[in-house]
Amino acid sequence: MSGRMKGCPTSRNRYIEVIIGIPGKSELTYKIPNTVLAKQHLKDFLLKLAVDQETISWEELAKSRIQRYTKAGLALRGARYREVISQKELAKLCGISQENLSKMENGKRAIGEKAAKKLAKALNIDHRLLLNP
């Protein structure tokens, strides 16, 4: 057997698999050749991306919604969506009427400390997120 044929050609990883997850979308998978040059290009790209990336706070992105619904209302709605629970179910768990819960989410009613603690416990968050400054 010649020297070239001694090793199994599939024993080496010929590609590096790069998986990019995008929130709300399916993952994208790329295969990049497993070479020193390709690895260096990938590393350089990722470093450049990290340096060039401008960070924007969520408050800046949601400025118009915060003005409309308040920060506490958005936090309440977001936490409720994350837990996949309806307003009716959350209201029942916390002993709050669904109408008042809706008003809290829409910024038409302030969330008191007592209600914030009940809601936070049901939604697994810190109650201070639900209190307007």
Description:
- It is a single chain.
- By secondary structure, the protein is mostly helical.
- The protein folds into 2 domains: 43 residues, no CATH class; 71 residues, lambda repressor-like DNA-binding domains (434 Repressor (Amino-terminal Domain), Orthogonal Bundle).
- The protein contains 7 helices and 2 strands, in the order ββααααααα.
- It has a two-stranded antiparallel ribbon.
- Strand 1 and strand 2 form a beta hairpin.
- Helix 3 crosses helix 4.
- It is elongated.
- The termini are far apart.
- The model has no long low-confidence stretch (mean pLDDT 86).
Helix and strand topology:
Elements: E1 15-20, E2 28-33, H1 36-52, H2 58-61, H3 63-69, H4 71-82, H5 87-94, H6 98-105, H7 113-123
Antiparallel strand pairs: 1-2
Helix pairs in contact: 3-4
Keywords:
133 residues; mainly alpha; 434 Repressor (Amino-terminal Domain); two-stranded antiparallel sheet; 7 helices
